[in-house]
């Protein structure tokens, strides 16, 4: 689980990080995990992100949604899925009959990775590297262990490929039930941020409809597990 050090004399992670990650392995509550993750320096993203954006939601949520990483809004607010993509997710959940109180929202990477725009002050989202996703994985594993969702939903390719394998194709396999030890039912759909990038209103509308349909399947899976 540990990255290779840059050189032999450089410690891989500080003793503080190790204790935070040990808490990730031992903690039994989300509050303990959140406190420990706030101190995490297991990869370099803590240096540029404003704060750790840990998962939030029901401690025994039936459905866990996992995205890629917090975005600009989330980084500033310290909460996941509160920006434009989060608004699409919450609206689609409501249309699909999924109540906010039965979900837990998180990301495979807990710090915002960005680079400055060529002009202006905008912070441009950058895709996390494998090493960063790998470094952050203990936090997600701990969230899964504590929340124990019945249905795990990967949002977008980064989450799906890091949890279901690099061959996973969201465009081909979205909405399918995937065999996994992560949760009793695991599936994937697109990340709501991709809807924001739709080229025109018509394709945006179609993507939203397909996204809501995927979430309706998720709601059915969750109901079936509860029955
Ligand atoms: S992205 Fe994850 S592993 Fe990296 S510093 Fe943040 S919490 Fe730690």
Describe the structure.
By secondary structure, this protein is α/β, with parallel strands linked by helices. It has a single domain (15-226), classed as 3-Layer(aba) Sandwich (Uracil-DNA Glycosylase, subunit E). The protein has nine helices and seven strands. The strands form two sheets. The protein has a five-stranded mixed beta sheet, with helices on both faces. Strands 4-5 form a two-stranded antiparallel ribbon. α1 (15-26) runs parallel beside α5 (130-147). The radius of gyration is 17 Å and the shape is globular. The site of iron/sulfur cluster (SF4) has 15 residues, from α5.
Please supply descriptive tags for the structure shown above:
alpha/beta; 44% helix; single chain; 227 residues; Uracil-DNA Glycosylase, subunit E; disordered N terminus
Write the layout of secondary structure elements.
Layout: H1 15-26, H2 30-37, E1 56-57, E2 63-67, H3 72-77, H4 84-96, E3 103-107, E4 114-116, E5 123-125, H5 130-147, E6 151-155, H6 157-164, H7 170-173, E7 185-189, H8 192-196, H9 201-226
Parallel strand pairs: 2-3, 2-6, 6-7
Antiparallel strand pairs: 1-3, 4-5
Helix pairs in contact: 1-2, 1-5, 4-9
Bound molecules: iron/sulfur cluster (SF4).
